Amino acid sequence: MGTIFGSVLGAVFVGALPALIDRYSDVIPGVQTSVGGEGFISVFALNQAIFGVLIVLFLVFEPRGLAGIWLRIKTYFRTWPFSY
What we know:
By secondary structure, the protein is mainly alpha-helical. The protein has a domain at 34-84. The chain contains three helices and two strands. The chain has helices at residues 4-23, 43-61, 65-78, and strands at residues 31-32, 41-42.
């Protein structure tokens, strides 16, 4: 069931998500950006929590992964005017 395309998409997603969280951590409420800063969760713990939630959500709702989502979108736009 696995595809090379899905592996590449997953690697890009897993590589980009921590960078996005780190970049926008000062805007997210409740995130502790410095050692003595205010907040109830650190950036590292937030990364771990988001990864865990995403793994569970993908296993439950989209077992084919990001490649399955991409293939559905591509098929939809290929047959768009005549979807029957």
